Amino acid sequence: MSDFTNGLDDGFIRFSETPQALQKGRSIQIQSAVFIIVIQLFFVFIPLWPIRILLFILMLFVITLSWRRWIDWSTTPFAVNPSHPLMELLSDKEAKVMIRLHDGRWEPAGKYRYRLVEDDLLKGFNLVTLDDNYSIFGYLTDQKSQSSSLRRTIALLNQALGLRDAHNGEHDDIEDARDRESKDFGLLDRDWPDEEDSQDALGPIAKKLKGQE
Predict the structure, then answer these.
(1) Range of lowest pLDDT (52-66, 117-131, 167-181)
(2) pTM for the complete prediction?
(3) Which helix (H) or strand (E) segment is 98 a member of?
(4) Domain ranges of the chain
(5) Contacts by 7-10 with C-beta closer than 8 Å and gap 24+?
(6) Are 160 and 97 contacting, i.e. CB atoms less than 8 angstroms apart?
């Protein structure tokens, strides 16, 4: 994990270490442990070896899936400073966000929200700024398709930026970005995350962003 934070400015905390994310990380570990224990119990109480072999294969699959899920969560590619609302410290200092690109560089997030756009040359996805020019912020991932975890990452990032702007007293331009998307005629291939995805991403933090708390 030290490689993941190389180049990150001192004082910044990666998303997976914020209070809400730590709770989510613990729930991932508990769910995985429960599944594995249940499979082991079946293994002990069912003496038939063909079924035991299937259970053993299933356990390996669950372990692999759980490990991948944990890695995806713990390496969510952005970080916040202690003043950011995600840290829940009630600071009156400026909140900031930094984004980790695929090459390991950490860059300060700009004032706009972001979307993913496929990179035809590198066969991955660029992070595109939702400004008037749809500027490319950088190459984010070499994943070949937009998985649910990748879509959740963008939802989390944009929510963190919204919380940052609200904390700093800046205009929240996420609705402006949505309006700009609705008026665009196919310049980008985009898909806004579902409301359920966005709310699941940060739980109470997402509700706070919507002014429900």
Answers:
(1) 167-181
(2) 0.78
(3) strand 97-100
(4) 110-209
(5) 7/104, 7/105, 7/106, 8/79, 8/98, 8/100, 8/106, 9/98, 9/106
(6) yes
